[in-house]
Amino acid sequence: MKAAAQARRGRQKRVRQTRIFLYYFRGRIFAVRQRKAMIFPAAYRSSGTARPTEEAAALTEHPPRLRLRVVFGADAMLGPGKADLLELIEQTGSIAAAGRAMRMSYKRAWSLVEEMNAAFRAPLVARSRGGAHGGGAHLTETGATVLAHYRALERRATDAGEAEIAALRALLAEAGASDMSGGK
């Protein structure tokens, strides 16, 4: 039995693979990369057959997008991650659930909320402690206003930059053209 397992291992190759998961939220697609060790049979190496990761990479190509971050000073900024967190807090009614939806720890989500609350004159997120009916969080009037202004600014910047983004995309190298390994 050991000899059969060793023979099988000799015909397989252990490879570190990056898997890409796509999440759809509010009309946008988010890609999350996860590294994982996988074993490919010898047939993949010798036959030149495309590996599953190459097929997945072709499917995950998405159009270019503009990511806008507004920096107010040394410590205060608002970008797409914080805006998404605010939207999810409004939808879920919970900082923890919003953090889980964004695949971040509760501590990280909490610290971002604290940072945003401290940066503006009035808090953006109001929270209540747990108890018999459970706790929760919701956007304040200021939080809803800040989020609306940020999303409007984001739309205007995207609309204004469409032609330049298309011109930049036209100048990009073909996929695989920058592969220095020669496909190995």
Can you walk me through this structure?
- The protein has 184 residues and is of the alpha+beta class.
- It has 2 domains: 12-62, no CATH class; 70-164, Winged helix-like DNA-binding domain superfamily/Winged helix DNA-binding domain (Arc Repressor Mutant, subunit A, Orthogonal Bundle).
- The protein has 8 helices and 6 strands, in the order H-E-E-H-H-E-E-H-H-H-E-E-H-H.
- Strands 1-2 form a two-stranded antiparallel sheet. Strands 3-4 form a two-stranded antiparallel ribbon. A two-stranded antiparallel sheet has the order 5-6.
- The longest helix is centred in the C-terminal third of the chain and has 20 residues, at 141-160.
Give the helix/strand layout:
Layout: H1 2-10, E1 12-25, E2 28-41, H2 42-47, H3 52-59, E3 70-71, E4 77-78, H4 80-92, H5 95-101, H6 106-119, E5 125-128, E6 136-139, H7 141-160, H8 162-170
Antiparallel strand pairs: 1-2, 3-4, 5-6
Helix pairs in contact: 4-5, 5-6
Summarize this entry quickly.
With 184 residues, the chain is an alpha+beta fold. It has helices at residues 2-10, 42-47, 52-59, 80-92, 95-101, 106-119, 141-160, 162-170; strands at residues 12-25, 28-41, 70-71, 77-78, 125-128, 136-139.
Question: Which key terms come to mind for this protein?
Answer:
184 residues; alpha+beta; Arc Repressor Mutant, subunit A; two-stranded antiparallel ribbon; two-stranded antiparallel sheet; 8 helices; 47% helix; extended
Question: What is the percentage of strand-forming residues?
Answer: 15-25%
CATH superfamily of the largest domain: Winged helix-like DNA-binding domain superfamily/Winged helix DNA-binding domain
Tell me which CATH architecture of the largest domain applies here.
Orthogonal Bundle
**Helix content range:** 40-55%
Rg, nearest Å? 23 Å
- What is the chain-wise order of helices and strands? HEEHHEEHHHEEHH
- Biggest beta sheet summary: 2 strands, antiparallel
- Residue ranges: pLDDT <50 for 5 or more in a row? 36-52, 55-60
The average pLDDT is 75
Tally of domains? 2
Shape: extended
What is the number of E strands?
6
